[in-house]
Amino acid sequence: MNVLDKEAILNIIRSNEVTHFYHLAAILSAKGEQNPSKAWEVNMKGLLNVLECSVECKIDRLFFPSSIAVFGEGVDKNLTAQDSVLKPTSVYGISKAAGENWCNYYFEKYGLDVRSLRYPGIVGHQTLPGGGTTDYAVDIYYAAIKKSHFNCFLKKDTALPMMYMDDAIRATIELMEADGGRLQVRTSYNLQGMTFTPEEIYESIKKLQGDFTIDYQPDFRQEIADSWPSKLDDSAARKDWDWQPEYDLEKMTVEMYSAILAKQQN
Ligand code: VAH
Fold first, then answer.
1. Is 125 helix (H, G, I), strand (E, B) or coil?
2. Is residue 129 pLDDT above 90, yes or no?
3. Nearest-CA residue for atom 8 of ligand 1
4. Looking at the domain assignment, is residue 145 inside a domain?
5. Which domain, by its residues, includes 170?
6. Tens of pLDDT, residues 170-220
């Protein structure tokens, strides 16, 4: 349904007796810069609809996805602390920073058990990339298998926090199943999986496909990526709900490459 249609949300919650609500709808960073007012409407009005419906229907637990995009200048990019200043430079990041504070407000004012993660770039083979700056890290696998060449829209040394989809899903469920009494953060938890550059992911794929080539043609997304950290300090997540990543770049590449190859062959 349309996340801007509050009645539709209420009907689905009530007719399915929903108790746990994972709100994932949003317009991502790159697409958001191409249509700022639409991105703000979907990301903010959508979240407010979800928060209001969750209180009205007494939802047990609500999940809100934030992002490394909430960070900008004034942080230690090499290890960004949980309580760093939020100075986002993209519409998407501004909407996520505002969203975190709305979630904390609904927790404090209405007791809504809303929980959130600052996702890094998520890499998965289940769906095609959807307009994110970090989506180069998904595109590159398809390009290797389909064309044996990739035109990368970021510079080779652009180090960004990333996470394999399996780790992201497990982190989300583990947070949602955690004892609420242990959770000290009700804006959003930093979540770190791995950090790599376009050159490093290219080299990991080249081990599986020797003829793979790449060139680097930075576009408007380079400026977005340059405003983001390269690694998050997720010690709060590790302390409050025992977070531990399981995938590194090599393990992710083996799974991504074989899953996409299998899809192409079917
Ligand atoms: C984006 N994948 O690139 C999203 C993410 C880390 C940024 O939120 O817009």
1. coil
2. no
3. 67
4. yes
5. 6-265
6. 999 999 999 999 999 999 999 999 999 999 999 999 999 999 999 999 999
49 lines ligand 1 (CB under 6 A): no
Ligand 1 centroid to Cα of residue 118, in Å, is 10
Report which residue type is found at 155: K
How many domains does the chain contain in total? 1
Task: Answer yes or no: is 1 within a domain.
Answer: no
Q: How far is the CA of 215 from the centre of ligand 1 (A)?
A: 22
Catalytic positions, please?
92
Is residue 223 in a domain?
yes
* Residue from 43, 67, 118, 230 whose mutation best tests the ligand 1 pocket (most atoms within 8 A of CB): 67
Burial 226-261 (b: 16+ CB within 10 A, else e): ebbbbbbbbebbeebbebebebebeebbebbbeebe
> What's the pLDDT score for residue 130?
80
User: Ligand 1: which atom is nearest the Cα of residue 90?
Assistant: 9
Helices then strands, counting H and E runs in the chain, come out as: 11, 9
Distance 93 CA to ligand 1 centre (A): 9
Query: Closest residue (by CA) to atom 4 of ligand 1?
Result: 132
Residue 83 lies in a domain: yes
What integer best gives the mean pLDDT of the chain? 97
What CATH number did the domain enclosing 138 receive? Answer: 3.40.50.720
Q: Quick check: 101 and 187 in contact, CB under 8 A?
A: yes
